[in-house]
Amino acid sequence: MTSTVDEPQLLEQFEATVARKDRIEPRDWMPEAYRRTLVRQVAQHAHSEIIGMQPEGNWIGRAPSLRRKAILLAKVQDEAGHGLYLYSATETLGVSRDQLTEMLISGKQKYSSIFNYPTLSYADVGTIGWLVDGAAICNQVPLCRTSFGPYGRAMIRICKEESFHQRQGYELLMAMMRGTDEQRAMVQESVDRFWWPALMMFGPPDEASPNTEQSMAWGIKTHTNDELRQRFVDMTVPQAEALGITLPDPDLRWNEERQAHDFGSPDWEEFWAVVKGDGPCNAQRIAHRKLAWDDGAWVREAAMAFAQKSAQKSVETEGER
Amino acid sequence: MSDQVRAEWPLYEVFVRGKRGLNHVHVGSLHAADDQMALRHARDVYTRRNEGVSIWVVPSAAITASSPDEKDPLFAPSGDKVYRHPTFYDIPDNVPHM
After folding, report:
1. Tens-digit pLDDT profile for residues A57-103
2. Would you call A88 an interface residue with chain B, using a CB distance cutoff of 8 Å?
3. 0.90 cut: is pTM over it?
4. Phi, psi of A86, deg, nearest 5
5. Between A97-105 and A282-295, two packed helices, what is the crossing angle to 10 degrees?
6. Burial letters for A214-241: b for 16+ Cβ neighbours within 10 Å, e otherwise?
7. How many angstroms away from the CA of B71 is the closest CA of chain A?
8. I need a surface site. Which of A28, A79, A184, B50 has the fewest CB within 10 A?
9. Cβ separation of A27 and B4 shorter than 8 Å?
10. Domains identified in chain B and CATH numbers
């Protein structure tokens, strides 16, 4: 059926839908720039889940007990699942899965810079669960109400599962804090390394985030980077106190007037360097993903050949009857 | 390898029955080489925490959908039939159980 509606009218309908806080669904008309922004954001999110399997996967073989190993396996499997939910959502915007994988491997699309930091000690598994997944939850809870239906639905599934991730991490750190001085020092050292990169996960400060305004007008984002960063700091400070560690920021203190914490600024030069590819693990992460993709090619092809052969066989048997 | 074999695994839509007595509900999609693999992948991707007691997988290409362009004409016939709703009828307050 050919559309009799012209573009200004379609745009008006689209904007009215967004203004009503109603959802946009894949087959609705949408401005090309809205589609492009979503592909970029949702793909980046999906890639982050997939690359995010690597830093923690690093410790599966060295987890200190069967219990911790089972938990870590389940968590890394969840990250794979989250990546798949989000790839499916991206595909409804007209990009194929193979294109997305190729854009990740070639560096045309990014993933969260946090996964370019190494996991040097087992305490990092706990810190990632507590701080990195905690920051992710802060980002993702408002995204459950984002304007694009499939993205919001994927976020709802993900948020339900992230809570396990954060709690297992915090519990792991609590267990270490009840241990020896050496174990407590391991936790503090790990938090010292991850605190600032975790704050960077919310993206550049508002004045340096050119896409935020348009994304908010379209209902893709509902809060600015700085708002979410503030919320995360306020949530985390009492958790750090309960744990008994110090957050590595001399400027961190309660501001009675603002009813919020003042805190220092992350090193944004480091942030941009990591985004541009100069983080400690950028090359390693992509090389590993590419290796898995290339090594899996024969499996994907064999499964496809088998499916075609089986389909052919069942057509032939049908014919003989 | 021929291009046909190198093509992406087809897309399937996944429907899960949360518990007995409920409808199967669409939960998302995934890629698989064939129906059996789609079912196994659906279990791993969409029911890791007892979210379902039954799964349907359907090749996305097999779904016929109404077009958003014809939404208004398609659903218009039900718009002006208010008498299909119980609230259309005034019943006095003193009539019980209705």
Report:
1. 999 999 999 999 999 999 999 999 999 999 999 999 999 999 999 99
2. yes
3. yes
4. -75, -35
5. 140
6. ebeebbbbbbbbbebbbbbbeebbebbe
7. 10
8. B50
9. no
10. 11-84 (3.10.20.520)
